[in-house]
Every structure is written in structure tokens, then in C-alpha cells.
Design brief:
Elements lengths: L2 H13 L3 H14 L4 H8 L1 H11 L2 H11 L14 H16 L5 E5 L5 H9 L10 E2 L3 E2 L1 H7 L5 E4 L7 H7 L5 E5 L2 H14 L5 H7 L5 H7 L1 H17 L5 E5 H6 L1 H12 L8 H4 L24 H10 L2 H6 L5
Helix pairs in contact: 1-2, 2-4, 10-12, 10-13
């Protein structure tokens, strides 16, 4: 079966909520096309694949499979959809970046936080190609991470801060990373708009949201997402005790973009003569930057006073203080 057909079959099976069947379709594709399968699924159906891995509890199994495949398929984690020649060109670009002294950057971003804009600082500003070091946002793949840390790459993920994730990163040679966050009360509103714009993704959350009518009703139907967003942020705060983490916020990004970029450049440490602010900044009309209105406090006008209080009470005080999300 061709990879394009496998992806379509995976999506159709996912739409039926047959997560076990979808996981097996991905496994078959890996076995048939070990050098190319992951990049096709990661680019076309990344959120669906993440949900399938989580729902079937096969995250560690698949991470191990791809870890074992890597020595004989060393380009399987390069994320481009071109042919073999394009993959070779990306590999060459990466080696040129390594020769320039450009390190790889570990950057985990919270969902609905303007991830593409943050990644453009490095993917476009420094021309760092996207090469995976983890199974979607679920689990670090040790051999991929060792390769990633050779330098010259940037892949932004929504990597989950599982308790053993920091140890896996450190074993892969990671000694620092960056985490980008956003007030989860606003990400809850952004999620509702995302579900409307991308009806093929996040099936279980979409099923919940469809039970509501207004934006606020839909948002309150997907409170598991809100609680998960809080756990995600809090998890990285806790893991910062094990691995040095530089935090940034969406609110700072929209308040002063140039200062935001400067903070990243200072902490990244790559030679600045290879950076282009012009390339890092442009917004393309065909890309969803999850900015929408770009307002950090739109949620205040969406929820009632009681709803706002309930959401705020669920947000730990130490996170409000740390990231200046106080009322």
C-alpha cells in the first residue's frame, strides 16, 4: 500500500473512533516504508496520531520500534514530504548549520500558544530544518535525540512532561531547553475555534464540544483539555528542577515581538550573523498562526463572571504568579 493510501485509511479509521485499528495501520506503514512513513503521518495527521498513541496506550511500544529502526533508517525523522533528493538536501543543510556552529534547540510549546511563530525564529530565521527527536508530542526517542543534539536542527513540539521525559532528554545529551506557555483560560477559547476550523482533528474533544452551542458552552464541555493544559504547564515547571528550562509566554510575544525574539537569541547562543529577523517575522496568509485576534484576555468577554471564577479557581496560584496571569 502506498503511503498516501495508508494516511487516508488511517484518517478514515480514526474518524470511526477505531483507535486500535488506526494504530495497526500506522504500524503496517512503518514496516512497509520504514524510511518514509513517520514523516508522512507526522506532517498530515500528527494530532490524530498522538491521540491514537495515547488512547491505545502504545506510546512506549512505538517509540521503541522507531528507536530500533533508526540505525538502518537514519533519515526517517526528517520532516519533509519531498523525494529522496530533497531529503539529501535537508541533510546537507543541517550539516552546513553544524559547521556554522548552530546548535539544535529543544523547544516545547503549549497548544494554541502561537507555536508556528515561535518556531519561525529558528526554522526560518536560522534556516534550521525540522527533524524529530520524539514520537509526535508523546515520548522522546533516544536514538533520535542523540542524533538531534549533533546540532543544526529545530523541531517544535507540544511534548508532554511525563515524569521520565527529563531523564530521557538528559540521556540524549540535552542540557537545557525552552518551554513556551499561554494562559490556559485563553487556550480554552482558542481550542473551540480550532475545532471548528479543523474538523478532522481532535475527535474526542470535538465530540464533547459539539454538545454545546455558544463558544462558552462548547468550551465548558471540553474542560478535560483545560485541566490537561494546566497539568502540562505545571509538569514542565516541576521538570525544570531536573533540567534547566527557559520559559516564555504568548502574552510577552504579542506585547513586544522584538524583545521576545531577543530573549530567545540570548538564550539560544548560536552565532547571530546567521540570523535574519526579516525571515523570522513574516506572516504568511495561508498559515494558521493561532493568533486570531492576538488578544491574551479574550476569555474575559466569553465567559460569565461565575464561569470565569470557576476557571480561575482551577488555575494554581503559583502559575498565575509565575507567568503574570493574575486577575
Amino acid at each position: 500500500m502506498q503511503l498516501e493510501d495508508s494516511v487516508h485509511l488511517f484518517q478514515a479509521t480514526y474518524d470511526k473512533r477505531d483507535y486500535s485499528g488506526a494504530a495497526n495501520i500506522f504500524l503496517d506503514a512503518l514496516n512497509l516504508h520504514p524510511s518514509n512513513a513517520y514523516r508522512h503521518f507526522a506532517i498530515h495527521v500528527s494530532s490524530q496520531l498522538s491521540e491514537v498513541m495515547s488512547a491505545t496506550k502504545r506510546i512506549k511500544e512505538f517509540a521503541q520500534i522507531m528507536n530500533d529502526m533508526f540505525p538502518t533508517n537514519p533519515q526517517m525523522n526528517i520532516l519533509n514530504l519531498g523525494d529522496y533528493e530533497n531529503t539529501v538536501l535537508i541533510d546537507r543543510l543541517r550539516n552546513e548549520n553544524i559547521d556554522k556552529g548552530l546548535p539544535s534547540i529543544l523547544l516545547a510549546t503549549q497548544g494554541k500558544s502561537g507555536s508556528i511563530s515561535v518556531s519561525n525564529i529558528f526554522n526560518s530565521g536560522f534556516h534550521l530544518p525540522s527533524i524529530s527527536y520524539a514520537l509526535i508530542n508523546q515520548r522522546v526517542v533516544p536514538n533520535w535525540t542523540l542524533d538531534y543534539m549533533r546540532g543544526g536542527a529545530c523541531h517544535v513540539t507540544h511534548l508532554y512532561p511525563y515524569s521520565d521525559q527529563a531523564q530521557l532528554l538528559k540521556e540524549g545529551g540535552v542540557d537545557r531547553m525552552f518551554v513556551h506557555v499561554r494562559d490556559p483560560r485563553q487556550t480554552l477559547v482558542s481550542l473551540v475555534h480550532h475545532l471548528e476550523k479543523y474538523p478532522t482533528q481532535l475527535g474526542r474533544l470535538r465530540d464533547m464540544a459539539d454538545q454545546g452551542n455558544s463558544v462558552s458552552e462548547k468550551a465548558l464541555m471540553v474542560l478535560p483539555f483545560y485541566r490537561n493544559a494546566i497539568r502540562w504547564i505545571d509538569g514542565w515547571v516541576k521538570l525544570s528542577e531536573e533540567i534547566p528550562i527557559t520559559f516564555s509566554t504568548f502574552e510577552d510575544m504579542v506585547d513586544d515581538w522584538e524583545a521576545f525574539v531577543e530573549k530567545y537569541l540570548e538564550n539560544y547562543g548560536g552565532p547571530r550573523e546567521h540570523f535574519s529577523m526579516e525571515n523570522a517575522t513574516p506572516l504568511r496568509h495561508d498559515t494558521d498562526y493561532h493568533f486570531r485576534e492576538g488578544r491574551p484576555d479574550e476569555w474575559r468577554g466569553v465567559f460569565s463572571a461565575n464561569e470565569s471564577k470557576m476557571l480561575s479557581d482551577l488555575l494554581p496560584e503559583h502559575l498565575k504568579v509565575r507567568f503574570d496571569w493574575r486577575e
